[in-house]
Structures are given as structure tokens and as C-alpha cells.
Design brief:
With 320 residues, this protein is of the alpha+beta class. 21% of the residues lie in helices and 27% in strands. The chain starts with a helix and ends with a strand. The chain contains 4 helices and 12 strands, in the order αβαβαβββββαβββββ. The strands form 2 sheets. The protein has a 6-stranded mixed sheet, covered by helices on one side. A 6-stranded mixed sheet has the order 5-6-7-8-10-9, with helices on one face.
Length: 320
């Protein structure tokens, strides 16, 4: 029994090392390997943290050491990518608070936190703390003012009304310009994808005529899904956005022939991250076409064991 504490510490250290390896730039397409030194800026991250689902791979059991190890790996990924705006989904409030307090108080680059609850309580969030709220979170690099926060509750199909979905937005100072940054997590059932995506279009399209807009999230549909026409501005899309991974020809399908930009991209869920054979891209970072160019995207490899059931999506773009 005297060795139990040492074994527990060794297990936590191994988990931290494994997660660190996962969030470093390996396991990506050779033609599109991400580099903080050569890819354009601003920089973005979208990541479904899988905070509360029964199948989530990270279960800290409210153990401070395990929670801090998880926090440190997420922060490392943000710092490595020099991310200007980070958009998280499926976030327990305890996860948000861990990141918020650490990133606000550290002496190096701070981040300003923005929270939006979609559920007032979910039991599995108790493994992250006593506050059981669940929802969306964004982090903006620096201590500049973040203003104009809105949390819009999205349409719910009455036949599948078991989880409210939302759109969290705020104005953020990003490398000298004011950007409207937004974060969402959509449902996949019934007529909800069409209604929720159209609702986002109606809210954000007028803004794209006035200022840069960044929209990240877990959309729970693949790039060619019909509802995403409201966001994409090419390949039969009628929206105002480009998606960061739409230029990586390693992932172009037959429908992309003759295009330099295409509704496609690297898978963000696959058998490496969770027990599934349905590898697909369902996570996105959209940037307003009028304000950004030279988009680049990459889905980071998962660790073993995984940190989440999704890959972390990194994006980059230059100002137009």
C-alpha cells in the first residue's frame, strides 16, 4: 500500500506526457504541417472538450492533480499555437474556471475568458467541481477589453428537445483589429441542423459586411451537408465565410476537381479519438471572406489515451 501514492503520481505524469505529445504538431499531412513560425496570423483554435458525456475519455473524478494536468495540456496547446481566439464546446463550468483562473493570473500572456451556459446543470460535471453548469467558452489572448457579449439560444426541434444549443459571441481585440468572435455547438437531428445554421447566418451575415467575424465550433455535420451552404461562400455555398481547412488538397474529394478551395478538410473525429469507424470532419473555424485570406487548417492528432473524443482544430489566416 505504501507504493500507491507513487504509482498514482507516476500515472498522472504519464497521462500528462501523453497529452503533451498529442497536442504537439505530429501526425498531420506532410503538405499541410502546421508551423507557428510560418503559418499566417491571426491564429484560432476550436476544440470540443467532451467535459460531461458518459463516454468522455478524461474523467478526473474531481481530483485536483488530474484536473491540473488536464488544464496544463490545454494551455500548452493554446500557447504553442499562439492562439488569438480559442473556442471550446461541451465545457463544464469547472473546466472553464480552471482555465480562466490560470490564464488570467499568470505572468506570461494572459487570456480573457467568456462563458455561455446552455444547461444549468449536468451530473457528470461534478467531476470538475461543484458548479454543474455546462456550455461554451471562449478565450481571447491578452488583457484587452472584450465587450458586447451575447448568448443566443438556438432553435430546438421539439421532437429532440433534450439539450439547448447556443451561439456565444463577443467583440475582441485581435492583433490590432476588433473581431466578432463566436462559438457554437449544433444538434444533428431532425430539422435542427438547417434551422440552427440558418439562424446563425441571419445573425452573423450582416456583421460580416462591417467587421471581421470568426465562428468556431462543433457543427455535427460534414462539409458537404446542405445546411452548411448558409456559411460557406463557395462550392454551392451562399454564406459569407471561408473555412480554415478548405485549401488542403490532401483531403480534396472528387467534388473538388478544378477548385483551389473546397468544402472538405481533415477528419476531426475518428477511431484514434473514440471508438468509432465513422471518421469525419464535424469541427470548423469559419472566417469572414471579406476580411481574411490565406486560410490554413489542421486537426491535431489524438493521444493514447485521448484527451477528448474530438481532435483539436487549429486555424490560421491573414488579414485581407
Amino acid at each position: 500500500m505504501r507504493g500507491t501514492g507513487r504509482r498514482r503520481l507516476a500515472s498522472v505524469a504519464a497521462m500528462a506526457a501523453s497529452l503533451l505529445f498529442a497536442l504537439l504538431p505530429h501526425g498531420t499531412a506532410n503538405a499541410d504541417t502546421p508551423s507557428p513560425s510560418t503559418w499566417p496570423a491571426p491564429r484560432f483554435i476550436s476544440y470540443n472538450l467532451c467535459g460531461a458525456a458518459a463516454g468522455c475519455p478524461t474523467k478526473p473524478g474531481n481530483n485536483p492533480t488530474k484536473k491540473n494536468a488536464w488544464r496544463d495540456q490545454v494551455v500548452h496547446a493554446m500557447d504553442y499555437w499562439d492562439a488569438d481566439v480559442v473556442m471550446f464546446q461541451e465545457v463544464c463550468y469547472g473546466q472553464y474556471a480552471l482555465l480562466r483562473d490560470h490564464l488570467a493570473d499568470r505572468s506570461s500572456t494572459p487570456y480573457t475568458a467568456v462563458w455561455g451556459a446552455t444547461l444549468n446543470g449536468i451530473g457528470n460535471c461534478t467531476q470538475w467541481g461543484s458548479d454543474q453548469r455546462f456550455g461554451l467558452a471562449m478565450f481571447v489572448k491578452g488583457d484587452a477589453t472584450v465587450s458586447g457579449r451575447t448568448m443566443t439560444m438556438l432553435y430546438n426541434d421539439p421532437d429532440v428537445n433534450d439539450e439547448q444549443r447556443g451561439l456565444l459571441c463577443a467583440d475582441a481585440e485581435v492583433r490590432g483589429r476588433t473581431v466578432r468572435a463566436c462559438d457554437t455547438h449544433l444538434d444533428w437531428r431532425g430539422d435542427t441542423p438547417e434551422e440552427q445554421t440558418h439562424q446563425i447566418y441571419r445573425q452573423l451575415e450582416p456583421l460580416t459586411r462591417k467587421m471581421p467575424v470568426v465562428l468556431g465550433g462543433d457543427f455535427n455535420m460534414t462539409p458537404t451537408a446542405t445546411p452548411l451552404r448558409w456559411l460557406y461562400n463557395d462550392n454551392q455555398g451562399i454564406g459569407p465565410f471561408r473555412e480554415v481547412d478548405e485549401t488542403d488538397k490532401d483531403y480534396f474529394g472528387g467534388h473538388c476537381a478544378g477548385y483551389d478551395n473546397c468544402r472538405t478538410g481533415e477528419n476531426t473525429v475518428d477511431g484514434q479519438c473514440e471508438d468509432t469507424a465513422a471518421a469525419k470532419k464535424i469541427d470548423y473555424i469559419f472566417v469572414s471572406d471579406q476580411h481574411f485570406t490565406s486560410v490554413r487548417g489542421d486537426a491535431a492528432a489524438c493521444s493514447n489515451p485521448p484527451l477528448s473524443d474530438h481532435r483539436l482544430l487549429r486555424g490560421a489566416a491573414a488579414w485581407s
